[in-house]
Design goal:
The protein is an all-alpha fold. It has a domain at 28-83. Helix content is 66%, strand content 0%. It has helices at residues 11-22, 31-46, 51-54, 56-64, 66-83. α2 (31-46) crosses α4 (56-64), α2 (31-46) packs parallel to α5 and α4 (56-64) packs across α5. The radius of gyration is 18 Å and the shape is elongated. The relative contact order is 0.13.
Length: 90
């Protein structure tokens, strides 16, 4: 029987893992919860209002979740295009 020693993490992977752990909060949003609030967050950003202060859990989730951040960036592009009277491009 072989023993599985697991995967060894390199220094860069350990630093990245520690950065993620350091950014965790006692309460975090799920992706679904973040996406539910994304429209308000985007509208505040476009209006120049402090979205990060008003919705800190959304800001924190966007900082650590690439999928939700991509959704947010796409929403911002679409809203900017709408406000500029243009058709959003992908």
């Amino acid at each position: 029987m072989g023993t599985d020693k697991g995967r060894v993490l390199g220094p860069q992977q350990i630093r990245q893992l520690l950065r993620h752990v350091a950014r965790t909060l006692p309460r975090e949003l799920t992706c679904d919860e973040c996406l539910e609030a994304l429209d308000r967050f985007a509208e505040m950003k476009l209006a120049g209002r402090p979205a990060e202060e008003a919705l800190p859990l959304v800001a924190q989730h966007l900082a650590i979740c690439q999928d939700c951040r991509e959704e947010f960036e796409a929403l911002l592009r679409a809203l900017r295009a709408f406000l500029d009277g243009a058709t959003p491009s992908s």
